Every structure is written in structure tokens, then in C-alpha cells.
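BUG-284 | component: ligand-complex export | severity: low

The export step for DLZ jobs runs without errors, but we want the raw record kept on the ticket for reference. Input record follows.
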Amino acid sequence: MIKGITAVRQTGAAAAFDKLASFFSVLGFEQGKDWNEEQSRGRAFLAPLGNLEFIDGVPPSNADVFIEVTSLDSVREVADRWIAQNAAEGRITDTANTDWKSRMFTVEPVPGVAFSFWEWIDPLKGKPVAIEGDLVATGMRFAIVVARWNAVITDRLLQGSLDAFYRSGAKKEDVEIIRVPGAWEIPSAARKLAESGKFDAIVTLGVLLRGETAHYEAIYNEVSRGIGQSQQETGVPHAFGVLTCETLEQALDRAGLKAGNKGFEAASAAIEMVSLHRKIGAKA
Ligand code: DLZ
């Protein structure tokens, strides 16, 4: 019968609401449904697991929300950068060991609203035994191949990708943008860039509209096959950000309106895959 638990924080002021929303977005939380009523508005952030715990004894920090993560140092890097760029008044503690075999830091993106982030020190405790890429793009080089066809959409996808790269620490000079006429031309440009050896990953962005594209299936199959083949044969990760939609409205929704921004998601996948390749390479 019990369905879920929601921890609600009253932010007090619109500026604090916006700051907290921005902070939780950059950390990579999945966004839930926004709501807007006459008296109040809300923004939800989701985590795969949630539980309610009562503590009898000394609380581990002044936070009343504890967020377990699998890469505390990466989260800390993102949090430090966000505070430096957005909140001079924000506070963050040192990362320190706790008395329950874990490491933790506490951050106040807005003074008085504290969140503690922690991870198990014992890798077998709480954390799946898996190698995973991080979302830190510092020191990575990317190429974005973007189709001009349906530019009203692809420009938004491009902005989403750039947003993801820069927010994750990539430098402007390490992100190259390459424009091609249409989706059909994406694979050949992507292949050339991947073979150049100058990029750690390629992001491909385009839009195919079924209603307006003759031989839609044939074009889509060829574009996706070509991008996949380039990835497999060069070994360079290629993120797939080619939308296939019935209508322009549907495409707009996926380019930042209602259903996230697929350009942002593709760039995030590219960062994660570069990080993963490096980790696998270091282990081998
Ligand atoms: C020709 C065409 C059509 C009909 N539709 C699209 C589309 O929906 N999305 C897209 O990115 N490109 C389209 N194109 C252009 C082709 O991808 C290609 O650029 C031209 O056929 C020139 O080779």
C-alpha cells in the first residue's frame, strides 16, 4: 500500500528555490515533475532509492537529507565548481571519514539548507561492483557534428550539448562544432573526425521528421548504421543524438521543451563513455 516517500524543503524565497534547483541539476539528479499552484511551486529531483531513517544518538551532520553516491570525489568536484560559480555565500565542509565506514561532506548551496553526500569506503558495501564512467569532462576533447536541416531543433540540441560539456568542466577550446547539411551527412563527418585522433568522443545531432522525410526509414537506418559503424571501427565513443520524430512539436519537446534535451543527454553519455574507456584502459 505504501508507494513512496517525499522529503519536502520549503526554500523560503524564489532565489533560493532557483539556486537549489540549479545545484541539484548539475549534480546529475533525474528531474521529476515540476508543479505550479496558486500558492506554491515545486521542483522534484529523483533518486533510484529512498528510505526514511530515525537516528537515536548524535546526528552525523546538521543536514536532514543524506544522499548516497558512488563517486564522492566527482560529486565534490561538481559541487565545488558550482559554489565557486554561483553562490559566494554557499558553504561546503571538508570530506571526512564517518564512524560508519564511509566518507562524507556537507554542502549548503543556500545558507541554512544542508545536504550531506556520502559513499561507502568498503567497495563491496552498498555499491555494486562495477566500473562506471564519471561525469567530469575536464581534460577531454569533443567534436559535435550537427545537421543544419531542421536547425530550429538542432540548434537547441547543440545548446544542450554545450551546456552539458561546459557545466561538466570541459574547456571551450576542447569542444569543436562541425555543421553538416543534413542527417545523411553525419556519419561521414563523424568518421573523419574520429579517425583524426584529435577527439575523445563524438556527439552526433540531427532531426528526422517522419512526416516530412521521403524514404524516412531508409535514411534513418543508414544514419544510425553509419554512426554505429564509425564508433565500432574507430573505437572512439559516438553519442547518438539524432531525433526521430513524427512531428516538429514532438521534436521540440525533446529539444528542451517538455521531455528534456537529448543534446544534453548525448553529451553526458559521451563524457561518461570517455571516462569509462579511460578506467577500463587503466585496469587492463
Ligand atoms: C532530404 C532530407 C529530408 C527529406 N529530410 C531530412 C530530415 O528530416 N532531416 C535531416 O537532417 N535531413 C533531411 N534531408 C536532408 C538529407 O539528410 C541530406 O542532407 C540531403 O539529402 C543531401 O544529401
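Assignee comment: Attached the raw record above. Residues 14-120 form a domain with the 2,3-Dihydroxybiphenyl 1,2-Dioxygenase; domain 1 fold (CATH 3.10.180.10).
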